[in-house]
Structures are given as structure tokens and as C-alpha cells.
Design goal:
Oligomer: single chain
Order of helices and strands: EHEHEHEHEHHHEHEEHEEHHEE
CATH class of the largest domain: Alpha Beta
CATH superfamily of the largest domain: Histidine kinase-like ATPase, C-terminal domain
């Protein structure tokens, strides 16, 4: 039979007449009865109750003992207990409260009193459960917020350390660059001075030394770019930044007879740090030159660069026909977070990816029939 209320109540009394009266009054609730303390504890182990009505005077195990067992059990200690008693002695009432009871009702029962007491304590128990749930959720939320703040503090500390390290490395790279520049100038002067001496013409040691110094200079420049992020973005014309990169590599392009074609809108601009977009062009062209040097192809060496523009994005398409790329190696350079495991790792080349992603761009690499193609997209 469907009850008016879903609450489950345990009624404990050794007097059958009292049980019948109480169950008649509480007929709208789901009431299970027990005629002894032992039976009550057995039922509590197998069922979930919202309220316990417990007689004080019972043989073998009185209500006080049963209450103490209920309150010492983790599973049942939060169930409210109302004592049923014929006693009206103050000491007995106080003892019941000390054991954890929430109220008491004297017998014989008055219907309205019993119903109202049961209703009040069921509502209080429901409110307490709700408060516990809210408190638990609040504690969890506070715990998560504290953890989040701790993580943010860790990130701030890490960033502070990184910034401090970056400043030191940036300073070191600048200090190294000065003597490297001087060494390169001295070597170039000596190369020019001895260029007419026959024994030096066939000796490539000088030229190789100069090349290595040049590489060292480029590494120092790359370190400086990597750790120095103080420059602000500006509207940069792509063609102008490309021309600046080409100018630095003009001699090598001419020496290898590499034809460089630029197509598309020459007026396209991008909001970016000038040195970063210039670096992207410089390293892509340098990588092409590097591969053209070791290619045996008799085909005309070409680099094609095109600029495209629409409402949402700016595209830079870069292709060459130096058909000796290790495409997988290039992708590993760009994708791997563990850069140190590649012996031939090129920081300057990796910075191409760093600067593209720093400016919320996307880089795609694909091997073509004759060479390689880089597609770069910057969203506006």
C-alpha cells in the first residue's frame, strides 16, 4: 500500500498495545516495528531509517543501552532518536539527551503531539542532511579553489624563475655575440688579406673556420630571439619583412643560382613582431639553401613564396624543389617536446614553429613531388 510520506520510521517497544496505537497514528508513514532492543539493532543493520521512536523501559536491553549502541555506530549515529517513556523524571530525560536523543514523548500517546514531533524531527533531519551536502560541496569547492590557487602560485613562481633565467641567458648571448662578431670580422679581413697568396687558395681550413664562426653567430642570434620577448607587435608588411630576410641571404642565393619567386598581394600586413616574421622567412630560406647545397639535381633551383588574404586569415605558402628532404625529421623537430634527443636539432629552425604558434598561427608541412611545402595560416 502506497503511503502518504516516503519516510521510514523504526518503532521500538516491547508492549504490543503501544505498538498498535503508535502505528495507527503514524499510518501515513512507512513504519517498521521491533519488540526488543536486539531486534531493533538487527533491523538497523539491514535497513535505512529516517527516524527512531525508542521505548526506554524494555527487558534485557533498555532504551538507553540501545541508544548508546546506535550513536556509537558510524552507520546509524546520525539517525534522530525520540524516546518513548511513561517516566516524567527530569534525570531520565537528561540522561536521554546526554546519550544523543533529540526529543522525548510520554505515554500514553496523544495523536497530534506524536505526529507533530515526528514531522518536526523528520524536517530537521532532512535540513541537516541538506546542510551536510551543501557543506561537503562547499568544502570540496574551497579545496579545489585552494588547489587552483596553489597551482597558480607554482606557475607564477615557475614563470618568475624562467623570466630570471631568460634574462641571464639573454645577457650571456649578447655578451658572447660581441667577441664572436669580432672574430668573424678578423677572419674575413685575414681571408681578404691572404686571398692573393697561392698557398692559401687551395687551403679550405680558413673558409671552414669562417663558416663555423658564422654558425656560432647565428646560434647566438637565435638564443637572443628565443629569450628576448620585450618587443611589441606592429602592423608588418609581409613583402617588406621577406625582402629584409632575402637581403641577408642574397649572396648565397646568387652563388647557388636559386631563383626566388614571390606571388600574391604585396600589400598584405600582419600584426606581429617584425623580427619574428623576418626570422620565419630567413630560416625557411636558409633551410632551402642548406638542402640545395647537397642536391645533385640538374633542375633549376626554385623557391616559390605566395601571400594570400581573405576576411578571416592570412596565408603564406612556401615551396622549394630541393628534392632531398627528410620530411619525418622536419616534423619531429616541430612536434617533439623533447628536443634534446635529436643531435642535429636546430634552435633557429624550431623557432619558426614557436613564433608561428606564439602569434596563434598554424603550420603544416607536406612533402611534394619535387621538394617540400610549408603552409602557414594566421587568423585575424
Amino acid at each position: 500500500m502506497q503511503k502518504k510520506y516516503d519516510n521510514k520510521i523504526l518503532l521500538v517497544d516491547d508492549d504490543l498495545k503501544n505498538l498498535q496505537v503508535a502505528m495507527s497514528i503514524l499510518r501515513d508513514y512507512n513504519v517498521i516495528y521491533a519488540q526488543s532492543g536486539e531486534k531493533a539493532l538487527e533491523l538497523l543493520e539491514k535497513n535505512q531509517f529516517d527516524l527512531i521512536l525508542l521505548d526506554v523501559v524494555m527487558p534485557t536491553m533498555d532504551g538507553y543501552f540501545v541508544c548508546s549502541k546506535i550513536k556509537s555506530n558510524e552507520k546509524t549515529k546520525k539517525i534522530p532518536v525520540i524516546f518513548l517513556t511513561v517516566k516524567d523524571d527530569e534525570k531520565d530525560i537528561v540522561k536521554g539527551f546526554e546519550l544523543g536523543a533529540v526529543d522525548y514523548i510520554t505515554k500514553p500517546f496523544y495523536s497530534e503531539v506524536l505526529l507533530k514531533r515526528v514531522e518536526v524531527h523528520l524536517k530537521l533531519a532532512a535540513v541537516m542532511k541538506e546542510l551536510e551536502l551543501v557543506n561537503k560541496n562547499l568544502n570540496e569547492k574551497v579545496k579545489n579553489q585552494v588547489e587552483e590557487l596553489r597551482n597558480k602560485d607554482k606557475i607564477i613562481v615557475q614563470h618568475s624563475k624562467i623570466n630570471a633565467m631568460a634574462s641571464i641567458i639573454d645577457l650571456i648571448s649578447l655578451q658572447w655575440k660581441e667577441p664572436v662578431d669580432k672574430i668573424r670580422l678578423y677572419l674575413q679581413s685575414l681571408d681578404f688579406k691572404f686571398s692573393n697568396i697561392q698557398e692559401y687558395k687551395s687551403d679550405k681550413t680558413f673558409k671552414k673556420t669562417l663558416d663555423e664562426v658564422k654558425k656560432l653567430d647565428e646560434i647566438m642570434n637565435d638564443f637572443h630571439k628565443f629569450f628576448n620577448n620585450q618587443k611589441n607587435k606592429e602592423e608588418v608588411n609581409l613583402k617588406v619583412s621577406l625582402d629584409n630576410a632575402i637581403f641577408l641571404l642574397k649572396d648565397e642565393l646568387n652563388e647557388l643560382n636559386i631563383k626566388l619567386n614571390v606571388k600574391g598581394d604585396n600589400l598584405i600586413s600582419l600584426n606581429i613582431v617584425f623580427d619574428e616574421i623576418k626570422h620565419i622567412f630567413n630560416k625557411l630560406i636558409s633551410k632551402s639553401i642548406e638542402n640545395f647545397k647537397i642536391t645533385n639535381s640538374l633542375v633549376e633551383k626554385k623557391i616559390d613564396i605566395s601571400f594570400e588574404n581573405n576576411k578571416e586569415s592570412v596565408y603564406i605558402i612556401y615551396e622549394d624543389n630541393a628534392n632531398n628532404y627528410d620530411e619525418n625529421q622536419l616534423k619531429r623537430f616541430f612536434e617533439s617536446p623533447n628536443l634534446s634527443k635529436y643531435n642535429s636539432f636546430d634552435l633557429g629552425f624550431y623557432l619558426v614553429k614557436v613564433f608561428i604558434e606564439k602569434n596563434f598561427g598554424l603550420l603544416n608541412i607536406e612533402k611534394t613531388q619535387n621538394g617540400i611545402k610549408y603552409s602557414i595560416r594566421f587568423d585575424k
